[in-house]
Amino acid sequence: MEVFMDIMRVAAAGKIRRTHIMYRANLAWTVLKEALQVLEEKGILRTESKGHETYIFLTEHGFRTLRQFSEIENAFSIAAEEPREEAIHARSIA
Fold this sequence. Notes:
Helix content is 65%, strand content 15%. By secondary structure, the chain is of the alpha+beta class. It has one domain (2-93): Arc Repressor Mutant, subunit A.
């Protein structure tokens, strides 16, 4: 999931070439190619060729998916930072 998220975050900036995604997401070429194929099959990404260049775009479905992933990620990071109820109770007793 992290690989997909990284690719979607990079692609969210606008039309971008595959090699730029590879470098910005810090991925191996084979991993990137496989992930791009999955994301395109799911309708999250779209590729467009212009001449000898191929560009990647995040679709509307991709933007919604990225927003949902980000919300879930934020929910878990906030929950991890909040003190647990037992810890609060233990402090009040001490």
